[in-house]
Amino acid sequence: MTSQFYFQQLFETHSSTYTYLLADLQTKEAVLIDTVLETVDRDLKLIHELDLNLKYVLDTHIHADHVTGAGEIRRRLGTPTCLAQQAHVACCDIGLVEGDELKFGKFSIQVLETPGHTDSSLSFICEKMVFTGDALLIRGCGRTDFQGGSSDKLYDSVTQKIFSLPADTVVYPGHDYKGFTSSTVKEEIEHNPRLGKGKTKQQFHEIMANLKLDYPKKIDIALPANQACGVMNLVPTITAEEVNLVSKSCLLVDVRNSDEFNGELGHIQGAHLITLGERLKSFLESYDRSEELIFICRSGKRSEEATRLSLDLGFKKVYNLVGGMLRWNELGLPVIRGDLT
Hints:
- The chain is α/β, with parallel strands linked by helices.
- About 25% of the residues lie in helices and about 25% in strands.
- The protein has a six-stranded mixed β-sheet. Strands 7-8-9-10-11-12 form a six-stranded mixed β-sheet.
């Protein structure tokens, strides 16, 4: 790294999240990676003190354990938010794919697609450093049991992409829970108990399948907020587990189109297909405001919009299914396919 390159690793204690500030001190252009809503004031104060111009705010993935600060920073400074194009987040300003390059001053960040922890995880390479999010942690890795995660994909992402970087590349993860700050590609190849030491894909699959991890504590808040770039204008939510218990006493309204309703993810038994748009609006305008409604879509974004519409129309007992049919399928809950109801 040259004397004109500025780097700072910042830490948020409640979610054990690392935020990274990178800058060109000559041009004053800067980048933030994996911000946290609660520490936005800290980060912007540092940027102001250093007289930096924040060019991009990047997220390695849609976080389930904290709310990103990207939306709040964009609101204050107008800084574009950057996320994987595969994440399909409507409020994202720049959708990133493999091979993209983001320049700040004379420096640049290269984008790697490293799915597995989530289906849209990214890693960022800059100045002999790699920012791995939750794909690769120090002596560990992110879980693969929700958000479209896959142990097979994560194994390939780490062993074929991250581990193929130069051995002295410094690894900066999205979190650490044991007091470490960084590692190297060489160290993780040699010492990572899940992915290093010559582990086969089958061995890794068995390790991940037997972790028996608790459901993330903040996921029901973090996921819908992060689908809106961290904007905390939230609607009432309900988890897939809760829906499975109360589905017979509520009206389940699936707001996808008919191809999705009958497609690969299927639909919940008893759900009514009322597609988001004029059809849903017409239905809600004529329906009993005292009834309890649960809105469903693929990932929770369209159903959040439907929930907000119902609230605007005077409904009181309405909920958005967090994670949508993706989460429902991840839990192995029963689905029906090809039976339009």
